[in-house]
Amino acid sequence: MRTVNANLLLLLSMLIMACSSGAPSDQPRTAKTFYEQALGAFSADSVRMGEQLLNEAITQAHAEGDLHTLYLAQLRLAESLSWGNTEGALDMCKQALATYERHPDSERNHVIILDYIGTYASQLAYNNDTPFDEALAYTHRAHALAVTLRDTLGTELLCQTLTSLANIHWAMEDYPAALRFARQAEACAPDHILQGTLQVLGRCLMSCDSLVEAEAVYRRMRPGDDLQAAYIVQSNLAKLALRRQDIEAAEEAIDEAFSHAEDLYFKALEQKDAYYQASLAQERENERLRYASALNRRTLWGALAVAVLLAIAATFVIRARLRVHRQQRLAEAWRRKHEVDERIHETRLRHHEARLHAQELQLREQESAAQREQLRQRDGTVAFLKDFILQRSEVIQKLEGSAQRHVALSQHEWAEVEHTLDAIDGDRIARLRQQYPAMREEDVQLCILTRLRLTNRAIGNIYGVSISAVQHRKLKLKKEIFGQDDPEIPFEQVIVDL
Predict the structure, then answer these.
(1) What is the Cα–Cα distance from 79 to 455, expressed in whole angstroms?
(2) Contact (Cβ atoms closer than 8 angstroms) between residue 146 and residue 157
(3) pLDDT tens digit string along 91-142?
(4) Mean pLDDT over residues 146-167, rounded?
(5) What pTM value is reported for the model?
(6) What does the alpha-carbon distance between residue 253 and residue 12 come to, in Å, rounded to a whole number?
(7) How far apart, in whole angstroms, are the C-alpha atoms of residue 162 and residue 182?
(8) 55: which DSSP letter?
(9) Are 150 and 123 in contact (CB under 8 A)?
(10) Number of Cβ atoms within 10 Å of the Cβ of 220
(11) 302-358 confidence digits (pLDDT tens)
(12) Is 65 helix (H, G, I), strand (E, B) or coil?
């Protein structure tokens, strides 16, 4: 009965989990995740969704203490707010600066934040017709920092801060100062931001009535596929022509500017239509997914209800069968009790036999131990006789006394040592020569000296070499001739095993 209940609970839990899996799950999300999703929303021109995700990223970053993601989200939100709320963008950018100063990491980001604050402050001052002191203060800080980082980060940030100073002074109607900063920006501008720098320089030149230089700057610009930049260039060329009273050139520039404006307008319409089509397709896909999710939930809940009913019916059926089986088990229990009694009797008999068998094994083990002791004594006697025979050999005595002096053996003496060793060691050296015919005579002699258990110092005196040379020679012989690479097995053991 307990098994049945457990199975029912398991079935119900699996169905509930399946139903819950049909609904969208709330996975834990970090500030970095919100920030990355916000960037994706801005890439898809979904400004409202991007700002909402940035606010969530800021809230989550405060909770996590992730200051890096916090100031990046604040800076990106300030950039988005700047299109319609300059004051809010300035306040958010100042918050980003305060966050960065609590957790400074990339000095490049420090310059960018300061430059953004200066830009938003200048826009607010221009809109409200207030002094530009705050804008100049922050932008000069950004420029000073960019100058110190020029060798490490290049001239891009320096050019941007100079351009910002030029724009601020132009808004202040301080055109000579604006022109000076614009020329400095153009002198250090990298290729990828040169067009924007030239646009600022041309505007400053026009404000200073340097019409020839301004026209030359605008004609240097290469807007390429950027229709808005092309329109700005042609419209300014038209203004220059009008100021020079060159009506023909002005008409030509105005026509080209109008053509670029039309292209820009139609391109904007195409982009708008593509955006709405994509939004509509996405909304349809979201609706389809919501309908499929709801249908899945309904299907799963229906399956759950059917499963519960089936489980209840199965419970009643199983209970009825259990009552019948219970009576059958009682009868079977009496029969098994009789069988158990018989098995107990048989077990006792086997236990007695096992005890007798164990006693017999113990006697055999004692006999085996006695035999091993006899073999050990015999092996000791044989080893003693071998050592005695070896010690009787004059040549071997000569070798054993070579620990502190040089010893030279003749071929006859080597043959006598080998013959003596083969006689007491079962023709070991002769079998070694037969098994490894590639061995040199000095290798065989090294094996003989090793088998006689001479030290490396004694062997070195015989050959007139150092102990390390003997060790190296043994290692080389073990690897190249005997094929043994295990460093844990000494050369002496290899000779014994062979």
Answers:
(1) 84
(2) yes
(3) 999 999 999 988 888 888 999 999 999 999 999 999 899 999 999 999 999 9
(4) 90
(5) 0.48
(6) 78
(7) 7
(8) H
(9) no
(10) 14
(11) 888 888 888 898 888 898 888 888 888 888 888 888 788 888 888 888 888 888 888
(12) coil
Q: Was domain 31-221 assigned CATH 1.25.40.10?
A: yes
**Sign (positive or negative) of CA dihedral 482, 488, 490, 495:** negative
Interatomic CA distance for residues 33 and 432, integer angstroms: 74
155, with CB counted inside 10 A (0-12, 13-18, 19+), is middle
Sole residue written with tokens 């030279």: 408
Classify residue 393 as left (phi > 0), alpha (psi -120 to 50) or beta: beta
Say which amino acid occupies 217.
V
DSSP for 79-94 reads: HHHTTT-HHHHHHHHH
**Helix (DSSP H) and strand (DSSP E) numbers for the chain:** 21, 0
Tokens representing 416 are 């006598």
CA distances from 310 to 103, 296, 302, 303, 466 (A): 62, 21, 12, 10, 90
Break the chain into its structural domains and give their ranges: 31-221, 223-320, 392-497
**Residue 264 CA: distances (Å) to CA of 117, 195, 260, 366:** 31, 18, 6, 108
Burial class (CB in 10 A: 0-12, 13-18, 19+), 105: exposed
Residue 346 identity = E
pLDDT score recorded for residue 95? 92
Both tokens assigned to 4 = 């049945």
